[in-house]
Amino acid sequence: MATCLLPLSDLTPDQIRAVEMNPDQNRVVFGVAGSGKTQVLMHRAFYLSRTYNVPPEKFRVFVFTNVIKEYIKSGIQFLGLPDETVSTLDHWCRLFYEKQISKRLPLTSRGPDYGKIRISVLDLLKKRPDLQKTLDFVLVDEGQDLPPLAFEIISLAARHVTVFADRMQQIFEDGAGEEQILTRMGIRKENATLLGAYRNSPYVAQLASYFITDEIRRKQYLSQIGTRQLTMERPLCFISQNHNDEMARMAEVIRQRQLRNESVGIIVPTNRQVHGFATAMQERGIDIEKAVPPQRPGMPVDYNFGNNLPKIATYHSAKGLTFDSVVLPKITTDAFDHIGDNGLRERMLFVGVARATQWVYLSTIKGKESREFSLLKDAAANNHLTIQDGKASPVQTKMTQQNDDYDAPF
Questions:
Q1: Of 150-164, 291-305, 307-321, which gets the smallest average pLDDT?
Q2: Please, are residues 227 and 246 in contact by the beta-carbon 8 Å criterion?
Q3: Secondary structure of residue 61 in the 3-state scheme
Q4: Is the pLDDT of residue 196 over 70?
Q5: pLDDT tens by residue, 260-273
Q6: β-strands 311-314, 264-268: how paired?
Q7: DSSP single-letter state for residue 7
Q8: What is the pLDDT of residues 27-76, one digit of tens each?
């Protein structure tokens, strides 16, 4: 069975220090995409539970989505930690509400009103000291996506909290900023940073950097790239003539990556596209697992991160996941029209590219390119991306770009 978990011996000294930080105070660990935050989180859960003899019912790992919950579960199982120690904060708040407040949940037309549930849980925790600190520790993944109020709840609920976050991957609009996290956690300044982008190959990291709009942070990110380029293979962007052309090329790309026994992630803007693209690939003979939340709470999911079948998810659900190769189709105006212009689109594409360890494939349709395509043209001009026009270039069966004069990616 495959696992996303690396052995502790494979972690860097910097990562191991973060795993073994003393729980005498709350901790916030910042790290760029690829710095190993999720690896550190899983090993820290095991380290704290073992070192301080904490039973499973006395600690929790909080994640933002059910997709990343399943991903992390595939790792902690190898550490002997029970599945129930990983959940979303909203799930924990719901159970707390049902036990301490009322079995009747506040509802919206779509289900439980988690906003009201969180507020009620926080109000009760403030009023009832006997309900505070019932958990020995809590670890939080992708902390920048939780609202500020969440950190007040967690700080009251647990004796110790470690939050893992990356300001450049904040793609949920009500997510907490760095200062908000520190303030709500009672911390004056960040007390741990994972510096290196260890996961992403230099070519992948270089392409991701084009979607960092702040020049200072872009330079900081690039300065931390440390992984050797294992293959001389630049990211590729294919300009198709129409939707069917794009789907045919995408299917070919996935087959080629599967022949290499690579894990493949397909990332799209909307849930509707998750289902549509999965169907399009299945019609072309490729089995795809849709990494989407279950239709109802408690229902089993239809995907398994323990196998090597390609996974398709939205940008928001793919946060925290890792694949050898990532496919980002439909970099088109209509696919991104529903997303605002406050830098969110760039951060989403940064997140998508940064899911890959070795290679990225993007595609668009001629005449329908999104405005972010200009950044891809900049990357191509600097030899950090190959752009291939479907009309000008025949579909190739060999996807690897060999660079005879290769010596460094930037």
A1: 291-305
A2: no
A3: strand
A4: no
A5: 999 999 999 988 99
A6: parallel
A7: P
A8: 999 888 888 898 999 999 999 999 999 999 999 999 988 888 888 888 88
pLDDT value at residue 185 = 84
From CA 111, how far away is CA 117, in angstroms rounded? 12
- Terminal alpha carbon distance of the chain: 37
Instruction: Quote the tokens at residue 244.
Output: 């069917």
- Give the ranges where 284-386 is alpha helix by DSSP (H): 315-318, 333-336, 344-353, 373-381
Residue for token digits 């988690």? 114
Measure the CA–CA gap between 217 and 35, rounded to whole angstroms: 15
Contact 138, 157 (CB under 8 A): yes
3 state DSSP class of 313: strand
* Residue 158 clears pLDDT 60, i.e. is over it: yes
Tokens representing 263 are 């894990």
CA dist 158 and 290 (Å) reads 34
What are the CA-CA distances from residue 207 to residues 120, 329, 359, 362 (Å)?
Answer: 44, 16, 10, 11
Structure tokens at 346: 């760039």
Do 221 and 168 meet the contact criterion of CB atoms below 8 Å apart?
Answer: yes
Rounded (10°) CA dihedral 209, 198, 37, 54? 180
Helix (H, G, I), strand (E, B) or coil at 264: strand
Which residue, among 161, 174, 235, has the nearest Cα to 409 in the 3D structure?
A: 235
